[in-house]
Design a protein that fits this description.
Length: 152
């Protein structure tokens, strides 16, 4: 049965059977890989937020806003516009770009959730060195990525 307390050792199996560590050099390499994955996780979080907040195509359009045309006052009066049948417009390029950005955000979200669960499982190996790699990687990733969010 697996121990449910943190231990300091150079022997651990992470995520998959083939990622089995049995020495100091392997542990240092594994901690470094987990550290880099955690930094990437933090950068991915910030990039997803930046993509959603900075893109002009993801901003919701006001359905009650007046259309920006150069029609005369008579043509745009309610009585005249109610007589002409309105046909649905084909999707505009802006709408296509909005869906493309939304699809990219969905893929990034799936990657972020998957990576987050993998890091959680690494911590659940109860190895102190792996845990410290995740914590330090998260701190460094936050330190690097959130100031970048303000400058973008």
């Amino acid at each position: 049965m697996m121990s449910m307390t943190f231990e300091v050792s150079s022997s651990v199996t992470l995520l998959f059977d083939f990622w089995s560590v049995h020495g100091a050099a392997g542990m240092v390499l594994s901690v470094f890989v987990v550290f880099l994955l955690t930094v990437f996780y933090e950068l991915l979080k910030v990039f997803k937020v930046w993509l959603g907040s900075r893109s002009k195509w993801t901003q919701p359009q006001d359905p009650y806003a007046a259309p920006q045309t150069s029609a005369s006052a008579l043509e745009s009066s309610p009585s005249e516009s109610s007589l002409t049948p309105m046909e649905p417009r084909p999707p505009t390029p802006d709408n296509r770009k909005r869906w493309l950005i939304h699809a990219v955000q969905a893929v990034l979200h799936m990657l972020q959730v998957s990576l987050g669960y993998m890091l959680m499982l690494c911590v659940m190996s109860y190895n102190t060195w792996i845990f410290l790699g995740v914590i330090v990687g998260s701190g460094l990733g936050y330190l690097i990525s959130f100031p970048l969010l303000r400058t973008m």
